[in-house]
Write a structure and sequence with these properties.
The chain is mainly α. The protein has 10 helices and no strands. It has a domain at 23-64 and 157-248. The longest helix is centred in the C-terminal third of the chain and has 38 residues, at 211-248.
Length: 253
Amino acid sequence: MKHLTLVVLLSLLLSACESGFDRCMATELPRANAIDFGRSSARELLVDLKSALTQSEISLIANRQIFDWDKENPEPVQFPEFPEQLDYENLSPWEFKEAVKKNEAAREKWAERADEWRELPEIQKWSEQRRNAKLSIFNEAGLQITCDESLSDLSNTDWLDDLLMPRALRNDCWGAEQEYCERLVFVELLATDEKYSKELMNDELSDDDVSHFELAIKALSESIAWQSNELRRLEGMVLETATRACNSNGFYE
């Protein structure tokens, strides 16, 4: 009997020690936690960013190996050189019209030569060898690739646009108008890397340049850090919401 009385008294004491605020929070926290606050999509984006970062790091290593393969296995027949285009500056309307026609005609002839080049037996054989080499390199690096579309995606960074768009918008797309805010890694490179921009404009960019892969890794890392902070902010809204609900009912810490 004494033991039972002691248990009852202890329970009453513990109940007395628990404040009204604590009891209120015990009720309001589960209610607040049931509200999403955008946390699900934030978590999903964070997972996608981390996955893309891992894939981009592997792509950087693999593409360097592909560039080495290209140096050791050059095209057996050189690809047709793109024709020099007439300058449109300081032309009369008639001269401008004629220059446009000549440039278009030159590009069409070049496109025909390029198609003929692709149909050459030795080029088709070389292209198949290069495709198989790329597949082998990517698969050995840890990316299981089975189709040409995936190969194309991993040879550039354009597939990251959707993931990197929030970061681009936070940076005003580096001066580009929003309707042209695409190919984000390329746009950022042009705006922030003077050496890359100069070499590109002067047609001096090396065939094995990996600047876009390196920038993609930097951009993804920054996006992950920002998104992690954003997720913590959203998680904090659960406690804030529950606290406000208790405060509005007159309970305070």
